[in-house]
Amino acid sequence: MIVEVGHFALVLALLVAIFQMVVPAWGAHVGDERLMRVGEPAALCQFGLLGISALALTHAYVTSDFSVANVVANSHSTKPLLYRISGVWGNHEGSMVLWVLILALFGAAVAAFGRNLPETLKANVLSVQASIAVAFCLFILLTSNPFERINPAPADGNGLNPILQDPALAFHPPFLYTGYVGFSIAFSFAVAALIEGRLDAAWARWVRPWTLAAWMCLTVGIAMGSWWAYYELGWGGWWFWDPVENASLMPWLAGTALLHCAVVMEKREALKVWTVLLAILAFSLSLMGTFLVRSGVLTSVHAFAVDPQRGIFILAIMTLFTGGGLALFALRARNLRQGGLFAPISREGALVLNNILLTTACATVLIGTLYPLVLEALTGAKISVGPPYFNMTFGPLMLPLLIALPFGPLLTWKRGDILGAAQRLMFAAVLAIVALVLAYATFHRGPILAPFGLALGVFVMVGALIELATRVRVGDVPWRESLRRLKGQPRSAFGTTLAHFGVGLMVVGIVATSAYREEKILVMKPGDTTQLAGYTLAFQGATPRTGPNYREQVGGFDVTRGGNDIAVLEPSKRIYDAPPQPTSEAGIHPAWRGDLYVVLGDNQNDGGFAVRVYFNPLVRFIWIGALIMFLGGAVSLSDRRLRIGVPRRTRRATAPAPAE
Amino acid sequence: MTRKQRRGALIGVGVAVLTVAVGLVLFALRDSIVFFYTPSDVVEKSIAPGQRFRLGGLVADGSVKRGEGAKVAFSVTDTLKTLPVTYEGVLPDLFREGQGVVAEGVLTPSGVFVADTVLAKHDEIYMPPEVAKALKEKGVKLGKGAAHPKDTQSQRD
Question: What gap in Å lies between CA A418 and CA A83, rounded to an integer?
Answer without folding.
Answer: 54
